[in-house]
Each structure stands twice: as structure tokens, then as C-alpha cells.
Design goal:
Blueprint (H helix, E strand, L loop, with lengths): L1 E3 L3 E2 L2 E2 L22 E4 L7 E8 L3 H4 L4 E9 L3 E2 L11 E2 L14 H4 L12 E10 L11 H8 L3 E11 L5
Antiparallel strand pairs: 1-4, 2-3, 4-7, 5-6, 5-9, 6-8, 9-10
Length: about 170
């Protein structure tokens, strides 16, 4: 299985997908979600789940990765850009914008894509997609641990896509 994204140029996500773009909600969270395509998934795949995260955030959060997007029950191999805000064909978990690291943005606003805003330098971002043999009993607003528990024993394959995002210029 392989993942590609038209949102990446020269190893970097385009500015629109994070704080260097224009689509920011009232709490400062970028909302314009990344596009991606899944290739060569197992033929018996029922659904996909994905986690988009930033391990370089450890320095900023003092020890925690930043979860930008979690989604489950995706049944298509193409996720268009800015799909997160109006998605009806998959469920989304809360991101780190809902955590004490921020100002506890409400869960209903955080159960979407929360874009990249690396404050200290360019960061590396990881999109991990799982091909699953089932759909999951999750609803919008789930937490990452609920997703990782639900996919256990159902993973047919997985793939990782990595790219960077330029330091956020306030």
C-alpha cells in the first residue's frame, strides 16, 4: 500500500494546509485539510483509518506528539483537500487543539483537521493510513486511544507519508 498527496511540493506541504494559509478558525486553528490518495490497498479492505501527527512537536509540548487529524471508516481511496470541515462519509476524532496544551478548544471544533503551525522551526509531519477488514464502532469526537484500540486485530496493511511544513510566521 502507498499514499500520495497533491498537497506536497518539494517535500513540503503547501502553506494553505496550516497556519501560513488563510483558513483559520476563531481559535487560531488552521482548518483547510490535506488531500491524499491511497494506492494498492488490499482487495479485501472494508475501510481505512488515518492519523496525521507531528513528532517534532515534542520540543514545543514538552514531551507529546501533536495530533492534527484522526479519521476512521473512510471507504474511498481519495480524500480531497478541505474535506474535513464538511465530511459526512467518515468519522473524525479530536485533535490536540482540544488539549490543555492549547486553550481547550471545544471538542466539536476539534473533531476535524487541525492544521500545522510549527512555532520553532520547520517540522516533519507523518500521515499513517491503515487498511482495515471492518468498519469501526466510533463516532465523531473519538480520542486517539479509542482509534488505536479499535483497529487492533483488523489491520490488513498500513503505509506512511512524510513531508515537512515551514515554520509558522505569526
Amino acid at each position: 500500500m502507498k499514499i500520495t498527496s497533491t498537497g506536497i511540493e518539494n517535500g513540503y506541504y503547501k502553506p494553505i494546509y496550516g497556519g501560513n494559509g488563510d483558513l483559520i478558525n476563531e481559535n487560531g486553528m488552521p482548518t483547510y485539510s490535506i488531500p491524499f490518495t491511497i494506492h494498492e490497498a488490499p482487495t479485501d479492505t472494508v475501510s481505512f483509518a488515518a492519523i496525521f501527527y507531528d513528532l517534532d512537536a515534542y520540543e514545543v509540548t514538552q514531551g507529546f506528539p501533536w495530533i492534527h487529524w484522526t479519521l476512521a471508516n473512510l471507504t474511498t481511496t481519495d480524500v480531497l483537500e478541505n474535506t474535513s470541515q464538511q465530511a459526512t462519509d467518515f468519522v473524525q476524532g479530536v485533535n490536540t487543539w482540544h488539549s490543555p496544551v492549547t486553550d481547550h478548544q471545544p471538542a466539536e471544533l476539534s473533531a476535524h483537521y487541525g492544521g500545522m503551525t510549527p512555532p520553532n522551526r520547520d517540522h516533519n509531519y507523518t500521515l499513517k493510513v491503515y487498511a482495515l477488514d471492518t468498519t469501526l464502532a466510533l463516532t465523531d469526537g473519538f480520542y486517539l486511544n479509542q482509534l488505536t484500540d479499535a483497529i487492533k486485530g483488523h489491520i490488513l496493511d498500513s503505509s506512511i507519508l512524510e513531508a515537512q511544513y515551514k515554520q509558522f510566521k505569526h
